[in-house]
Design a protein that fits this description.
This protein is α+β, with helices and mostly antiparallel strands. It is 23% helix and 23% strand. It folds into two domains: 230 residues, no CATH class; 173 residues, Sandwich (Jelly Rolls), CATH 2.60.120.1600. It has six helices and 17 strands. The chain is globular, with a radius of gyration of 23 Å. It holds the Pfam family DUF1214.
Length: 419
């Protein structure tokens, strides 16, 4: 039986008390600093935007210590969803799921899983985080981003049994079949899955270190203090750097002062993009209450995704609202042009992108299975005249049909995340 009571203990009785308290208070100061960025110029002063800025912070505060501590030890790896319908991180796309696992080139890992029906899957080994983005003088993005892809395997390359089960080894000696090499600097697995039709199911994955025999050690004061520092950098970095870092460094982002149009140069198509398995382009939009924006793209091959984001470039409420489209869920006009309407209220067109009441935001294009760059056209029109600028045979939906579409979306996305 214990011979002590809680009242017997006080701050200062433990040898690590002062260091732990100081490290915690530094984290709290960083969190306070992070909150100040909710008021920066790129986040409009409307109450809905200010609230969303803090929501972007609190959603990521909820995962800060999962990344900084709970999944951090590469000897005891875990796969972690770092975006979900209730947790958005800058640049996430609605019809993707994003998972990661901290690893080390010192170990060999075994992933087991069952391949789902999602149209696209990419598992990438990420290498060291450089001081600067290669070929530039720009610093990399905040953790857990900024590292360099080293090797990848696509879902189409995975060898599975008849039911879709597979093993994938990471690191160690070269193996036949499903294997990805690592280097001494390998530090992370980045797992992205993209969905087209609502009927597509996710790939289930779990990871373990080959040779695990002992339980993970309990966290020490030193590890807690390191986690406080990492988490403080994380929450401050994401609030400070989104969206300005992408404006500064990405060739696929239009000049932020040139709103409502995509960049003419689709230069976001580098060797690293090839390992990531995608091409990308981004448009920064701004709409008054009485305006609508028509976005056009000649239909092209490949698996493309359009997804709406807010000023911090986190995805919009894709669980409840029509904020993303893919080929399987998009109506193409008879002239072989894909047209979307961005507006604050439902215009009745099938391909409606809901602004969720935001005046400003981001529209992201991803192309995953083709190297053909898209050609975009945009047209800002009065909301009352939007139908005058669309083809006569534009696909329309009734309010009842819209409700059914939203329910189908809701159920499919909950299935993706198992929620």
């Amino acid at each position: 039986m214990n011979d002590w009571e809680p009242d017997d203990m006080a701050y200062g009785d433990g040898p690590a008390d002062a260091e732990l308290k100081a490290a915690w208070e530094r984290f709290c100061d960083r969190l306070k600093e992070a909150g100040s960025y909710a008021f920066k110029d790129v986040n409009p002063p409307a109450p809905i935007h200010r609230a969303d800025g803090f929501r972007f912070l609190t959603q990521n505060l909820g995962q800060a210590f999962d990344l900084a501590l709970e999944t951090r030890d590469p000897a005891f790896p875990q796969i972690h969803y770092f975006t979900t319908p209730t947790m958005k991180l800058g640049g996430d796309v609605a019809d993707f799921t994003y998972r990661q696992a901290w690893i080390s080139g010192e170990h060999t890992y075994r992933i087991t899983g069952k391949r789902g029906a999602a149209r696209w899957l990419n598992i990438t080994v990420q290498g060291p985080k450089p001081d600067k983005i290669p070929g530039t003088d720009y610093p990399p993005l905040h953790e857990p981003f900024g590292d360099i892809p080293e090797a990848n395997i696509l879902g189409s390359q995975l060898q599975t049994d008849a039911e879709g089960w597979f093993e994938l080894f990471i690191g160690g000696e070269e193996r036949s079949g499903n294997w990805l090499p690592t280097t001494p600097g390998s530090r992370k697995l980045f797992i992205r899955e993209a969905f087209d039709a609502w009927s597509e199911t996710p790939t289930h994955l779990t990871i373990e270190r080959v040779g695990m025999a002992e339980p993970r050690p309990m966290a020490s004061p030193a590890q807690m203090m390191e986690a406080f520092g990492w988490a403080g950098d994380f929450v401050t970095g994401l609030m400070q750097q989104w969206p300005e870092h992408s404006w500064m460094t990405s060739g696929g982002v239009c000049d932020p002062d040139q709103r409502n149009q995509f960049p003419a140069d689709k230069s976001a198509d580098t060797a690293d993009d090839a390992k990531r398995g995608r091409m990308a382009a981004h448009m920064i939009w701004r709409l008054q209450l009485d305006e609508a924006l028509i976005v056009e793209m000649p239909f092209h091959d490949g698996f493309w995704i359009f997804g709406m984001g807010g000023p911090f470039v986190g995805s919009m409420d894709f669980l409840h609202r029509p904020t993303s489209y893919t080929p399987a869920r998009t109506k193409v006009d008879s002239d072989a042009v894909v047209r979307f309407v961005l507006s604050h209220d439902n215009p009745g067109v099938h391909n409606w992108l809901d602004t969720q009441g935001f005046s400003d935001g981001n529209l992201t294009y991803r192309n995953l299975m083709s190297r053909n760059p898209a050609t975009f056209r945009t047209m800002l029109v009065p909301r009352a005249e939007v139908m005058d600028h669309l083809p006569a045979d534009t696909a329309m939906v009734t309010p009842q049909e819209r409700s059914a579409m939203l329910l189908e979306r809701y159920r499919a996305i909950k299935q993706r995340f198992g929620i």
